Amino acid sequence: MEKPATTDHPVLDSIERRWSPYVFADRPVESEKLLSLLEAARWSASAFNEQPWRFILATKDQPEAYAKALGCLVEANQGWARQAPVLILTVTRTTFVRNDKPNRVHQHDLGLAVQNLVVQATSMDLFAHQMAGVDLDKVRREYNLPDGFEPQTAIAIGYGVDPADLPDEVREKEQAPRSRNALSEFVFGDEFGKASTLV
Ligand SMILES: Cc1cc2nc3c(=O)[nH]c(=O)nc-3n(C[C@H](O)[C@H](O)[C@H](O)COP(=O)(O)O)c2cc1C
User: Fold this and answer.
1) Confidence (pTM)
2) Number of domains in the chain
3) Which of 14, 16, 20 to mutate to test the pocket of ligand 1 (most atoms within 8 A of CB)?
4) Which of 17, 39, 55, 115 has the fewest CB neighbours in a 10 Å radius?
């Protein structure tokens, strides 16, 4: 299902077409496509090239591993995410390998890697829905995260559905309009909070 952004200025096709569905098709994601998504994340920029992101990958063709990952989402997210053929739990290393000092931008760099993955997914007609609703303690426990690693988010990935195949109430939710702040609300000039003259 398409739900393009109503942009005020032109953007890349895969930025315009990306959105976060709650419904996924009952269809696996091909391994080579999944590898391309991960490769896109791999080539993200990061501070000192630290690459602090770690991904715990679970696919439905490995039911036990999939159930373990799904069980780490909060219940509200489990409800819809269980349809997605692929789940990723994200983790970051919070210190630099080179000197063990805190990496102030580990979450920033995870976000860059995830956005690379999501934009790549959109370009391949896949959809990704990111989640903060994760039971962090459960991830720590279930996967025995070593010291210095923090669980962060999750991502559900899969193919989309034809809205005509959805029950009315689900279709309504999926078709709800998307909105964004205007550029003038977050692009400032010489005073914080005052819109840049460009926008
Ligand atoms: C870091 C992050 C955490 C999110 N957490 C959740 C979540 O726990 N559950 C959920 O249903 N959606 C979650 N979302 C999806 C957002 O609600 C969604 O991206 C936002 O409403 C904008 O919609 P769009 O992605 O379709 O443009 C999250 C998105 C991001 C980027």
Assistant:
1) 0.98
2) 1
3) 20
4) 39
